[in-house]
Amino acid sequence: MNNYESTIKFWDKRFGKILSTDKRYDPSKPMTIIEIEEGLRWLINETDSIIDFGCGTGNILFRSLFLGTKKAIGIDISRRAIELANDTSITNKMDTKTDFKIGGVELLKKIEDNSIEVGASFNTIDNILPDDAVFVLQEMNRILKNNGKLLIKLNDVIPKKVFDEDDYFQLISENFYKEKSGLYFWNLSDSIFKEIINPYFELVKYVDVPFQKTNYKNRLYYLENRK
Length: 227
Ligand SMILES: C[S@@+](CC[C@H](N)C(=O)[O-])C[C@H]1O[C@@H](n2cnc3c(N)ncnc32)[C@H](O)[C@@H]1O
Fold this sequence. Notes:
The protein has a single domain (5-225), classed as 3-Layer(aba) Sandwich (Rossmann fold), CATH 3.40.50.150. Helix content is 33%, strand content 29%. The chain has helices at residues 5-19, 34-44, 59-66, 79-91, 130-143, 160-165, 190-197, and strands at 49-53, 71-76, 98-102, 116-122, 144-154, 169-173, 176-179, 184-186, 201-210, 217-225. It has a 7-stranded mixed β-sheet, with helices on both faces. Strands 6-7-8 form a 3-stranded antiparallel β-sheet, with no helix packed on it. Helix 1 (5-19) runs parallel beside helix 4. The longest helix is centred in the first third of the chain and has 15 residues, at 5-19.
């Protein structure tokens, strides 16, 4: 059985709705969240190639291409996300520079060692199985060139009492849940994340990405490959 059936269903529905409109991302506009625009500029400074795991609509890749990156690879398990990304790529005449692939972590194995300069993965590795998340980081270490950079954005950590009080989250294993939405959620603490990345990447900067008018935030990790 595919472990990600309900994940695919969730995201296909979400991206399918956008596909049915004519709303497409305009890469000439800076990312709306300033911390993301700044992180991206650090990531792609004078680099030719980028890979995004769990790329969704591909916005990060399109913005990178607009800012001068020459080649962008996006991987996403949602067929609709990739359809939308390909459509946006054509709309913006960027399709000779993009390579969008439908699938999960297994696709990383097909990419050559030291072949890409920088990588990104936003709000994905804490929504997949923990073993797969660790695999993504190992593979990024292998695929990215010497001193290659990686920008990872994680969801916020949720206080334990929320899980105790709320049946929205079904516990699967320690700190790992399946939401009623069908998505997985790994309540990945900062210290566990640092332990996981440590063999592969050095943490060079950390930034909070606050959400306006809520107490919720995302966490942005600037990483450099240990090779
Ligand atoms: C929260 S969205 C983030 C999308 C994009 N990175 C962004 O920040 O806008 C998570 C994305 O991860 C993708 N995804 C979830 N599980 C995946 C898996 N096992 N392999 C590849 N992509 C996956 C989903 O289809 C979805 O597009």
